[in-house]
Amino acid sequence: MNTLWRPRVLGAWQVPATGPVILAVNHAHYIDGPMLMGTSPRPVHFLIKKEAFVGPLDPFLIGIGQLKVDRSSPDRTAVTNALGVLESGGVLGIFPEGTRGDGDFTSIRAGLAYFAVRSGAPIVPVAVLRSSERGGRLIPALPPLRSRCDVVFGEPFEPGDGSGRRTRKALDEATVRIQERLTAHLGNAKRLSGR
Question: Does the pLDDT value for residue 107 go beyond 80?
């Protein structure tokens, strides 16, 4: 990451040094996941669509601990593997919006709330912010080479209501709380980074 772009990391001290944690990351560009993996203070295991595990990327992604997920139907194996990362005290990376978009956390899926409430792991919001400049791109879907990318970690929080309930209503309420916290973090990250 340091060779291709100029990442600036803010708030990495907010990531708990030990124990399970979920990094909830906005997702607007292809490099958001790799950028976080390259700048996180702890190794991150992402849920990644199975279509990415092709050719030489398949053994590479598996070798660095990434988790394959089939998005066409409920993938119990992926859920079990993700919970296993948290049960072993690891770091799970999730794009709460499920796929690339505007990266503004406006559409959050319930999976993040499920993993957090089920495991008891705190969520650390992460904003990956890039330059809006268009020139200098070798690949249109990537930021210009040597442009600055900011990775801003926020304060850990627990989205549950403290009851330990995992009902649909409890998860829906947790999802609302998560969206509020992630949206607030994104605004604060933009202020901190001057974006």
Answer: no
Q: Which amino acid is at 133?
A: E
The answer to whether residue 159 is domain-embedded is: yes
Among the listed residues 165, 89, 94, 87, the one whose alpha carbon sits nearest the alpha carbon of residue 123: 94
Burial status of residue 157 (CB atoms within 10 A of its CB: 0-12, 13-18, 19 or more): middle
Strand partners, 129: 150
Contact 149, 6 (CB under 8 A): yes
Element housing 60 (H / E): helix 57-63
What does the alpha-carbon distance between residue 177 and residue 55 come to, in Å, rounded to a whole number? Answer: 40
Q: Are 161 and 174 in contact (CB under 8 A)?
A: yes
Decide if 174 is inside a domain.
Answer: yes
CA–CA separation, 102 vs 85, rounded Å? 28
Distance CA 117, CA 159 (A): 7
| Predicted TM-score (pTM) of this structure | 0.85
Model confidence band, residue 116 (pLDDT cutoffs 50, 70, 90)? very high
Number of domains in the chain: 1
> Is residue 61 domain-resident?
yes
Q: What tokens were used for 33?
A: 């996941």
* Domain carrying residue 38: 6-193
Q: What is residue 171's three-state secondary structure? A: helix
Kindly report the CATH number assigned to the domain that includes residue 100: 3.40.1130.10
Does 1 reside within a domain? Answer: no
pLDDT-derived band at 43 (thresholds 50, 70, 90) equals very high
